[in-house]
Specification:
Elements lengths: L15 E2 L2 E2 L6 H31 L1 H8 L9 H12 L3 H26 L2 H9 L8 E3 L8 H4 L16 H12 L15 H9 L9 E5 L5 H9 L4 E6 L2 H14 L3 E5 L12 E7 L7 H14 E11 L8 H13 L5 H6 L2 H8 L2 E7 L7 E6 L3
Parallel strand pairs: 3-6, 4-5, 4-7, 5-6, 7-8
Antiparallel strand pairs: 1-2, 8-10, 9-10
Helix pairs in contact: 1-4, 3-12, 4-7, 8-9
This protein binds S-adenosylmethionine (SAM).
The site of S-adenosylmethionine has 23 residues, from helix 9.
Length: about 375
């Protein structure tokens, strides 16, 4: 352990590290291997992608596409994106940037998993140590049927998917999170974006000053619930997810950070919460990981559990229509190259309209960041 660095395990204050509390310090080899990936990703998504964007706009076909990007509503999105990709691929900067994106996407696990393995003993001590409860609970449901689209996807190239590796919490929270994700530059996250601050900024899109009960379907490791807690300390927090691994990590993080959550293993589309029982629902980075029919069912479920006058805030990467053509090509790329099967199809939809059709009122869709991310769609259940 590097001297002077404190963790929850060593008795120092716990720190939320991009989805998990930092549990152990990786060895020097592990840290260095990941840090170089973080630096590379930051460089390619910043300097190299900027160059690719300039080259795209210098190409007459690229400039023409950009000019009419949002108007071509009679042309299906996959065809529009394919045209833009043809232009993008003429640029060596674009091809290099994408090659390195895939390289970093694979290497974070190629390096991060062995780095966590080398800390297995420390991790076991960390997980075995008693943690004072912050009052939260976790209810797993072994009878829940996890759909194949969920279990058979290795999300973001993660070996075995969300529940495939018992030390993934260490790989991510003590490695990939602080050394790679912290520098931004992947998927819709721009180079130098701070994803922890982005979560807080998204939570601030709830329109009221205070909330009674806030529910997060697909809450994963409770990072967003922590941002909710920081913004609305008075709110009672309830979260659910399919993944037992993430829910266990999430409860541990909440205990370490000292905030109370009620966690349940549930389908986002079937929360089993009473109707009209929540003041707010937040969905963060959930939409792009679910098929369209499940997304619509999850939105209907959010509407059902909200009290009249309650608010929904949803944040995900932006729709293709809200970004420039090269950025749309970049977003679309994740579908086939970073194991995100629903990334593109969910970018084609106008979710504000879907919400209106379900019955939400005062709906709005807008970007918080310059490249359309974080993208917000919000609305309320009528009084
Ligand atoms: C990218 S993560 C985001 C996690 C969390 N919202 C956050 O802000 O860190 C997506 C999460 O959605 C969960 N998920 C996807 N589909 C789900 C479904 N139908 N029901 C419950 N959880 C789901 C995954 O297990 C994963 O934890």
């Amino acid at each position: 352990m590097a001297s002077g660095e404190k963790t929850g395990a060593s008795g120092g204050p716990a720190k939320e590290m991009y989805g998990h509390v930092k549990a152990v310090n990786l060895d020097q080899r592990g840290r260095a291997g990941l840090e170089i990936l973080g630096a590379m990703q930051n460089y390619i998504a910043g300097t190299v992608r900027d160059r690719a964007k300039k080259e795209f706009m210098r190409d007459p076909e690229g400039a023409e596409l950009a000019q009419h990007w949002k108007e071509r509503h009679n042309e299906p999105w996959p065809e529009r994106i394919a045209k833009a990709r043809t232009v993008a691929e003429r640029s060596a900067a674009y091809r290099y940037e994408r090659l390195m994106q895939r390289y970093v996407g694979e290497q974070v696990y190629v390096r991060g998993v062995p780095a966590a393995e080398r800390r297995r003993k420390e991790a076991e001590v960390y997980y075995a140590a008693p943690v004072p409860s912050a009052g939260g609970t976790l209810e797993l449901d072994p009878s829940i049927e996890l759909p194949k689209w969920y279990t058979e996807t290795e999300w973001h190239l993660m070996p075995g998917g969300w529940d495939g590796y018992d030390l993934m919490g260490i790989t991510m929270g003590s490695g990939v999170g602080p050394y790679v994700f912290a520098r931004g530059g992947y998927a819709a996250v721009e180079a130098n974006d701070d994803i922890r601050q982005q979560r807080v900024d998204v939570v601030k899109q709830f329109p009221k000053k205070s909330y009674g009960r806030i529910y997060e379907p697909g809450c994963g490791g409770t990072s967003t619930l922590y941002a909710v807690h920081k913004t609305f300390p008075e709110a009672e927090l309830i979260g659910s997810d399919y993944s037992p691994h993430l829910l266990r990590q999430g409860l541990l993080s909440a205990d370490k950070l000292g905030f109370k959550v009620t966690l349940k293993q549930r389908d986002a589309a079937d929360t089993r919460e009473p109707s009209e029982s929540m003041d707010g629902v937040i969905m963060y980075a959930l939409q792009h990981e679910m098929p369209i029919d499940v997304n619509i069912a999850a939105l209907k479920e959010a509407f059902r559990i909200l009290k009249p006058g309650g608010d929904l805030v949803m944040s995900d990467p932006p729709p293709f229509a809200a970004v420039d053509p090269l950025q749309a090509v970049v977003l679309d790329w994740d579908t086939d190259h970073r194991d995100e099967p629903y990334f593109s199809i969910t970018r084609e939809y106008e979710w504000e309209k879907v919400m209106k059709d379900i019955g939400f009122v005062n709906t709005e869709a807008y970007a918080l960041g310059a490249q359309g991310y974080p993208w917000i769609v919000r609305g309320s259940k009528p009084l």
